[in-house]
UniProtKB/TrEMBL annotation, chain A:
Amino-acid biosynthesis found in the keyword field: no
Pfam families, alphabetized: PTS-HPr (PF00381)
GO cellular component, one term: cytoplasm
Protein name stated in the entry: Phosphocarrier protein
Native source organism of the sequence: Allofournierella massiliensis
Keywords: Cytoplasm, Phosphotransferase system
BP GO annotations: phosphoenolpyruvate-dependent sugar phosphotransferase system
NCBIfam families named in the record: PTS_HPr_family
Transmembrane segments: none
Residues in HPr domain copies: 1-87
Keyword Cytoplasm set for record: yes
Localisation per UniProt entry: Cytoplasm
Alphabetical list of SUPFAM superfamilies matching this protein: HPr-like
Length: 87, 569
């Protein structure tokens, strides 16, 4: 398992558009991708879980990836989040 | 006449097509075994997904990618491995596919409906729509086909779901009426994107209105006439023509900078009364919020809104306008705005009484909640400016600022994030404030001229009183001099000055405001484009000439007549 702390920077937080984009990107990896936010584990391949977690701008969270392409998945996840999830 | 929420402006005249809700009862469906139910579920999901993709493509072509996002969102939800997994678990527990869809969707609907964030609450509608689509597919029910509705159709439904929106076009549908939904609902956003007039939230509409009824509706004011008489119909026809003409002309000004004829830029903001109005303001091209009235938060309830509640409302607008200014006016109670639970005393002269900043400073425990909420709401985007209403002297600004400093200390001590540099400005709406604008500028970071109250107080006219209402006009030289004085004082002090009263959108007054150098015009969302157009028609020289000429005249009639004659068409 690899993991890294990161922070949500897009103004609207994890609403539908960024959540959908993020989940779709994560589905391209074999690894399990989990966001740890407020002690809860969120399946990053699920748009519903991502939206339900109410992650706002400025929220800090941990990305954990486990699987054969875990490093690539982690790098992609962190770069997407830090670049504002396309917003 | 029926009344609802005007959700998409425009006038619609046509005949009603009442869309009845389909019966989605699945109690008669028999469990056919886990494998078969799972296959049915997957087949239904893939069919719905395919259909939604087709719709999204059609929608993108028809009204643009932004409106189609609602549908692509639904497709992503449908393909969510987690949600599908939960449905499959339901089937594994012995439930038919329909029950699996229903149970899982209802859980998510409940979860999203309970969220504080308005945007998230709207996801509940998406999931409800998805649920209905999946159930219809599983039960083999036909889709409601609106694509073949005859020209001149007014659609009447309990709720207008995103998928219903897709089948329709401006060519055949001239209006939308629903029983539920508000200005920010999907239906409203889509109706606006399609430019189809819509009145939402009309109680009992789908029962009251019969198929084929003649309908005349106004999507701005939320009025619906069922089988109107000849005169109403004529009136609506004239208004429809006028509206369409305006719409076409103003379209050219959407997403354009606000500049005068010389290319000098001025700010064009919107006035809003509720967080929900912010979306429409943004769609209309507002470059910021120049007046966010906060009374709505306090009205129609039995107790004070909490700090969190207020903060969420303010933050919602701040997030939508991230990178742009949001000027929020602190509580303006008293006068004609009564709030029962504040137990304000009956006054002989409420407009000269214990209202707005006066009431707030005397009730620090109430005011403090709002000030804290405002500071906290600005934490993310640092774009909230605080505006004090009904100021008459420096002491009031100083007192309010002292409270803000105290609030900041408290928040810092509590470790809560807030905007430590939130600017504090003054709404200039009393003759006193206008007279001492130069002094107020020492403490105020900005001015915003509130012409409605400024006119009423300057002229000592209650515009609600029909016997004197005709005396109420911002073309009175006393009001004009007052406005000029405020703008001049702001310029001298180097602080920005805006106007958030109705006068800011008056095409007859705009040349004067441009000549004096008003920095920011804040108008209702529906007036943004027309104001941008008016501003674009005036060069500085022309505006200066008209201003000099108007200020040389001495009577209201003379000034008003002259300025009206100078309006550029």
């Amino acid at each position: 398992m690899v993991s890294k702390m990161t922070k949500i920077v897009n103004p609207m937080g994890m609403h539908m558009r960024p959540a959908g984009m993020f989940a779709q990107e994560m589905m391209k990896f074999n690894s399990d991708v989990v966001l740890v936010f407020k002690d809860k584990e969120i399946n990053a391949k699920s748009i519903m879980n991502l939206m339900a977690a109410c992650i706002k701008c400025g929220s800090e969270l941990e990305v954990r990836c486990t699987g054969d392409d875990e490093q690539a998945a982690l790098d992609k996840a962190v770069s997407l989040i830090e670049s504002g999830l396309g917003e | 006449m029926l009344k609802g929420t005007g959700a998409s402006a425009g006038v619609g005249i046509g005949h009603a097509l009442v869309v009845k809700e389909q019966n989605l009862d699945y109690s008669a469906v028999q469990f056919a075994g886990q494998q078969q139910e799972t296959e049915r579920l997957k087949a239904a999901a893939s069919a719905v997904s395919q259909r939604l993709s087709n719709m999204a493509a059609e929608m993108t072509e028809k009204v643009g990618e932004h409106a189609a996002e609602i549908l692509s969102g639904q497709i992503m939800m449908l393909n969510d491995p987690f949600m599908m997994g939960q449905m499959e678990e339901q089937i594994a527990a012995g439930n038919v596919a329909e029950a699996a869809v229903d149970t899982v969707c209802q859980t998510f609907i409940a979860m999203f409906s309970g969220m504080e964030d308005e945007l998230m609450r709207q996801r509940a509608t998406d999931i409800g729509d998805l649920r209905a689509r999946l159930l219809k597919q599983l039960l083999g029910l036909p889709d409601v086909d609106l694509a073949h509705a005859p020209a001149g159709t007014v659609i009447v439904a309990k709720d207008f779901t995103p998928s219903m929106t897709v089948g329709i076009s401006r060519e055949n549908v001239v209006g939308i009426i629903t029983e539920i939904g508000g200005r920010t609902s999907h239906s409203a956003i889509l109706a606006r994107a399609l430019e189809i007039p819509a009145v939402l939230g009309v109680p009992g509409a789908a029962d009251t209105i019969q198929n084929g009824d003649s309908i005349a509706m106004d999507g701005e004011f939320g009025h619906v006439y069922v089988n109107p008489d000849e005169r109403t119909l004529k009136d609506y026809e004239a208004r429809r023509e006028e509206f369409e003409h305006q719409r076409q002309m103003l379209k050219a000004y959407l997403n354009k900078p606000t500049v005068n004829a010389d290319g000098r830029a001025v700010g064009l903001y919107a006035n809003i009364g509720k967080p929900e109005d912010a979306q429409a303001a943004l769609e209309k091209g507002a470059e910021g919020i120049g007046l966010f009235r906060t009374e709505f938060l306090f009205m129609d309830r039995d107790s004070l809104p909490t700090e969190e509640e207020q903060m969420n409302a303010y933050r919602q607008v701040a997030a939508l306008f991230a990178g742009k200014e949001v000027i929020i006016r602190t509580l303006d109670v008293g006068g004609d705005k009564e709030i029962d639970y504040l137990h304000m005393k009956k006054e002989e002269n409420p407009f000269l009484g214990h209202r707005a900043i006066r009431y707030c400073l005397d009730n620090p425990e109430t005011y403090m909640i709002q000030l804290r909420a405002l500071l906290r709401a600005g934490a993310d985007h640092k774009n909230i400016k605080i505006m004090l209403p009904l100021v008459t002297g420096l002491e009031e600004i100083r007192a309010a600022k002292a409270m803000l400093e105290k609030a900041k200390k408290e928040l810092a001590a509590e470790g809560l994030p807030f905007d430590a540099n939130a600017q504090v400005g003054v709404m200039i709406e009393t003759p006193a404030a206008s007279q001492i604008a130069d002094l107020l500028a020492q403490e105020a970071a900005f001015f915003s001229i509130g012409t409605n109250d400024l006119t009423q107080y300057t002229l000592a006219v209650d515009r609600g009183n029909p016997d004197v209402a005709s005396l109420y006009t911002h073309f009175h030289p006393a009001v004009l001099r007052s406005i000029a004085n405020v703008i001049k004082a702001a310029k001298k002090a180097g602080i920005p000055v805006g106007m958030c009263g109705e006068a800011a959108a008056d095409p007859a007054l705009i040349p004067l405001l441009l000549s004096w150098g008003l920095d920011e015009f804040s108008v209702s969302a529906s007036a943004v484009l027309a104001t941008r157009r008016t501003i674009s028609l005036w060069s500085q020289q022309e505006a200066d000439d008209v201003q000099a000429e108007a200020m040389n005249l001495s009577s209201v009639k003379g000034i008003q007549g002259y300025l009206a004659s100078m309006i550029k068409k």
